[in-house]
Amino acid sequence: MERSVKQLFSNISGTYDLLNRVLSFGTDQRWRKKGVALLPHGKGVCVLDLASGTLDLSLAYAKKGAGEIVAIDFALPMLLTGQRKTPPTLDSRIHLVCGDGLHLPFPNHFFDAAMCAWGMRNIPNTPAALKEIARVLKPSGSFLILEFFKPSKIISKVFSKTYGRYVMPALGRWISRDNNAYDYLRRSIQKFYTREEYEEVLEDHGFEIIESRDLTGGVNSLILANCYGD
Ligand SMILES: C[S@@+](CC[C@H](N)C(=O)[O-])C[C@H]1O[C@@H](n2cnc3c(N)ncnc32)[C@H](O)[C@@H]1O
After folding, report:
1. Which domains does the chain have, with CATH numbers?
2. 3, 9, 47, best to mutate for ligand 1 pocket (most atoms within 8 Å of CB)
3. SS in 3 state form for the chain?
4. pLDDT tens digit at each of 230 positions of the chain
5. Atom of ligand 1 at shortest distance to CA of 75?
6. Atom 12 of ligand 1: nearest residue by CA position
7. Ligand 1 centre distance from Cα of residue 53 (Å)
């Protein structure tokens, strides 16, 4: 039987950051920086980092400017790995919650913005996840998504059939010592929406697309949407 997503990420938590740097040729941090620059910052601003993993997106947000971050992930070892690397100067602004993205333990209209880097694909029920995000966002709150969508352009299809099929799983196995984790990554991308399909799902669930674009030839993508509110 296939392992649960929670077990999978718990198992690779110690090597996750290194693998991200290697597999993305060091560009993943640049993508996070680009993303957080689009979100509001300031004293009193509170942002949700959904599926926060080892906190790289939370840290990018915190380094960019003022604001509080609530980071939620259901794999505790990922959060603890992130906590260990958080500098004391940022520690008091990043609040950790171990929990499920499908049942966010926060009141309605609590956050000024939400962000999710390479997490939405892992949450099985996209409509339910989007409803939860819309519920906890304030009206007009921004939602930033960085994601590997199903390839729809020639260059990203070729990349997926070569690098994604052969190089990524082999490097993933070698560095993480986990036989299946990076096969899962490729399969999950193939099963997910294209960026254009995902825009429609967002619009059907109370979001207005503000910006949507491919990064690095469509291998990675960024979407910024605003929540309509009730
Ligand atoms: C690919 S990692 C992304 C981590 C991080 N956002 C980053 O920038 O590297 C996906 C994360 O989603 C988390 N995750 C998957 N499904 C989840 C769910 N239903 N609720 C909370 N976290 C979830 C996993 O535990 C994992 O840490």
Report:
1. 5-227 (3.40.50.150)
2. 9
3. CCCCHHHHHHHHCCCHHHHHHHHCCCCHHHHHHHHHCCCCCCCCCEEEEECCCCCHHHHHHHHHCCCEEEEEECCHHHHHHHHHHCCHHHHCCEEEEECCCCCCCCCCCCEEEEEEECCHHHCCCHHHHHHHHHHHEEEEEEEEEEECCCCCCHHHHHHHHHHHHHHHHHHHHHHHCCCCHHHHHHHHHHHCCCHHHHHHHHHHCCEEEEEEEEEHHHCEEEEEEEECCC
4. 346 999 999 999 999 999 888 888 888 999 999 999 999 999 999 999 999 999 999 999 999 999 999 999 999 999 999 999 999 999 999 999 999 999 999 999 999 999 999 999 999 899 999 999 999 999 999 999 999 999 877 777 777 777 677 777 777 777 777 777 677 788 888 899 999 999 999 999 999 999 999 988 778 899 999 998 65
5. 25
6. 51
7. 5
